[in-house]
Structures are given as structure tokens and as C-alpha cells.
Amino acid sequence: MNTQEVINLFYQKLQTIPDILILKNAATPQTIPETGLIMISDGKSGIIETILSPVSYIVELRPDLEVLVQNSNDEQRCSLTSDIVGKIAKCFENDFTLNGAVDYLHFEMPEYADEDVDGAPPIRFARIPVIMEFISNNPLI
Q1: Is residue 9 part of a domain?
Q2: Gap between the Cα atoms of 141 and 128, Å rounded
Q3: What is the rounded CA–CA span in Å between residue 120 and residue 125?
Q4: pLDDT 10s per residue in the chain (141 long)?
Q5: 12 with 32: CB under 8 angstroms?
Q6: Is the full-model pTM beyond 0.85?
Q7: What string of DSSP letters covers the chain?
Q8: Structural domain count of the chain
Q9: What's the Cα-to-Cα distance from 36 to each of 60, 133, 139, rounded to whole Å?
Q10: pLDDT recorded at residue 141
Q11: The domain containing residue 108 runs over which residues?
Q12: CATH, residue 97
């Protein structure tokens, strides 16, 4: 397994969430859909441990996962953001190995922030730290 395969499996799993646009390794669009947006990017990876005979590596991958909601009503914006985070949790609640592709998949508590946009409704962000560990035969891919 390599990092791109793991990211693709994670992305495919997220795509099972209905009615929400999910983008991978994309720039934030000018307009956020009314139903919200989930964005994932490759993030950071590193080798935790090297195993000999045969040589393999325990890799930790930390993809960036963000939920974005744009709405002028504060209550609706916060509620929709929480709903999407809940849908992400539900999507993975019975599969923390991506069907055996990773040894460990863990979400940390979301970090929420609001950002004002000139001439447009504010955006609420939820950054969700994700940690995945898996074994790879080549640390370069």
C-alpha cells in the first residue's frame, strides 16, 4: 500500500456521503454549495518505524480534512457544519481500517473557526485531524 492508494480509498469512502460535494487536492472554490463542502488533501506523512526482513515501513499519514459551510445565518451555518461532521463520523463508524487497507484510522476532535468574507456570507470551517497508519514497502510513494 502507498500513500496515494490510501488517500484514494479515504476519498472514495467519503464519497458515499450523499448530497455533499467532496473535493480532493483541489483549491477552495469561489462558491461553496448550500449543502456544504468537504475537502481532503494529501497532508503530511512520515515513517514511524522500519521493519527488516523484508524491509518495510510503518507509515503515518495525516491527510487534511476540512468541512466548509457558507451561510449568513449563524445558527444555520453552525448546525450544518455539525451535521456534516456527524455524517463523516457515521461514514467511518464501522470501518476504521478502510476495509483492511490501513492498520489504524483515527479522527481527533474537530477545530472550528469562522471567517468573514467581504461582500459574501461568512464561512465556517471544521478542520478534522485524521491519522492513518499502514505498512508500505517503499517510503517514496
Answers
A1: yes
A2: 24
A3: 15
A4: 888 999 999 999 999 999 999 999 999 888 899 999 999 999 999 999 999 888 999 999 999 999 999 999 999 999 999 999 999 999 999 999 999 999 999 999 999 999 998 888 999 999 999 999 999 988 776
A5: no
A6: yes
A7: --HHHHHHHHHHHHTTSTT-EEEES-PPPSS--TT-EEEEEEEEEEEEEEETTTTEEEEEEEEEEEEEEE-S-HHHHHHHHHHHHHHHHHHHTT-SSTTTT-SEEEEPPPEEEEEEETTEEEEEEEE--EEEEEEES-TT-
A8: 1
A9: 29, 29, 35
A10: 67
A11: 3-136
A12: 3.30.2000.10
- In this structure, the chain runs to a length of 141
Q: Which residues contact 75 (CB under 8 A, 6 or more apart)?
A: none
